[in-house]
Write the structure tokens for this entry.
Amino acid sequence: MKDMENIPEMMAGLGRAARAAAAELAFAAPEAKAAALNAAADAVWARRAEIVAANERDLAYGAEKGLSPAMMDRLMLDEARIGGIVAGLRSVAAQTDPVGAVIAEWDMPSGLHIRRVRTPLGVVGVIYESRPNVTADAGALCLKSGNAVILRGGSESFHSSRAIHDCLVEGLKSAGLPEAAIQLVPTRDRAAVAEMLRMVENIDVIVPRGGKGLVGLVQKEARVPVFAHLEGICHVYVDKDADPEKAKAVVLNAKTRRTGICGAAECLLVHKDVAATLGQAIVDALIAAGVEVRAEGLRGSKPAEDTDFGREFLDMIIAAKVVDDVDGAIGHIRRYGSSHTEAILTENDATAERFFTRLDSAILMRNASTQFADGGEFGMGAEIGIATGKMHARGPVGAEQLTSFKYLVTGDGTLRA
């Protein structure tokens, strides 16, 4: 489908179709939704060569635009990553359907029986950059939670996203669900994003997934409510009571496994009592692995500047600093963090509890890599993003987080005195 001349009209059409589909999905059978996702998984695997070919076109486009190696890694699909998409679709399909689940119920002295049950949000708009797998993740989670979704992928992933979306639509058709349940904006024109942010009649919530520029724009311009994921400025604090072998392995994994994801560690904090020993050994290991360490109080690749703290590098670069103790680490994170994910490496239970209690990031970890900040690793099958705000959804946003609730009240001719 070529770029539309009348973007507002095109987007309004998508919105009306999504609203109609959402009305049907709200009471769709769990079996039908699961069948659609499993059929989509079958289609993705069967058409993997087609998806890889589409991805090659996107990689060429990304190279022409001068994308960084980390961003190109986000964009790239191979058979293994397509296998991950298939596994994610099947995992979401196998989950318990959240719609209609009773969150709480109670009886009142008046004779009323009250139930609070999960209900879909309605229509979700997802705006994302680079990563084509988000097409499958977001489509699957919205369908599972009974929501219609309008997907607007990045210009870099245009062809890959379309190929994956075709498979999702194939799944919807096979299960007898409305094709408009999962729609993909068919243009790279950025005017479509501006329209989505104003579609208060047909979109109930916007989920931006991308860099600070994208999310900041959405937060500034949106008239539709937003589940925000601002930045992944993730910290790892090595305490004086850390196990040296665990600490070295965790820090290396947290930084180097994949540098371009939001769960990658961006700042290493080290207790002063182990700075010259364990802290320096970890820094040396990072440098040996090809990481540029911008350090304060440690011998790094280069001295840290003030602007290196509170920065999302998304690259083989990490800031490092010596702190007095756990409270020094907490203070640094409060100042420079983005409320995404922080980890403490320690064998001291009291210190770990202090770290957990006094920080309020969406995800806090002990003796584990920040790269686990992922809905799939949390047992959600996939995620639509990591919400760093405090309203409604927080942390990995899975199917359950894409629901609201309503009250079902039953009486027996009950009258209020």
